Amino acid sequence: MSIIDMHVHTKYSACSHIEIHELLSTLSALLNVDGIVITDHDVINGARIAQKYAKEKYDIKVFFGIEVTTLDGHLLAYGIDETLPVGLRAIDTIKEIHKKGGVVVASHPFRNVYGSLGDLVYNLGDVLDGIEVANAMDSKKAKAKARLAAQQLDLTMIGGSDAHSLKCVGRSTTIFETTIESIDDIVDAIRKNQCRPYVSF
Length: 201
Prior knowledge:
Layout lengths: L1 E7 L11 H9 L6 E4 L6 H13 L3 E9 L4 E5 L11 H10 L3 E4 L13 H4 L6 E6 L4 H14 L2 E5 L11 E5 L6 H10 L2 E5 L2
Parallel strand pairs: 1-2, 2-3, 5-6, 6-7
Antiparallel strand pairs: 1-8, 3-4, 4-5, 8-9
């Protein structure tokens, strides 16, 4: 079993000020988190740097994903190692991620701000791989609506802190039934629905 925070931002996202060394140091002190996926907005630079430092100086698992900006809202992509075009329709972004072998999760779909898919998740149910139902930044109502959509669409549910500050890292996570050693393990578990959201603290 592994507990992974699936949605973490670094200073490479314009909305976050988290320094990578501070992030890794904070993670090394958390006993209830085995690793993180860095999902900066539309870039992967921070994730690559963090993964390098994690191997060299910290006993922490760091994987990289990306939070892609579409015309319809944000999508979390796991299992791809390159940036994607920004500003496409969500359906076209999902097709591109699948073409590259990744999986796609709707991030904070019912948060009442720009960047959320809202009810469009129901139209995308046949192509999405999962829905983020436990996001530390979301209201109870938004989380409940996300969980209901995932249940109705029979999609994998994940949790992530959506951390933009150190105090939020690890607050919402995902429990995997197997030990996660690579991003491929995460992709496989999402495809097989072998994980579940978990609120750590």
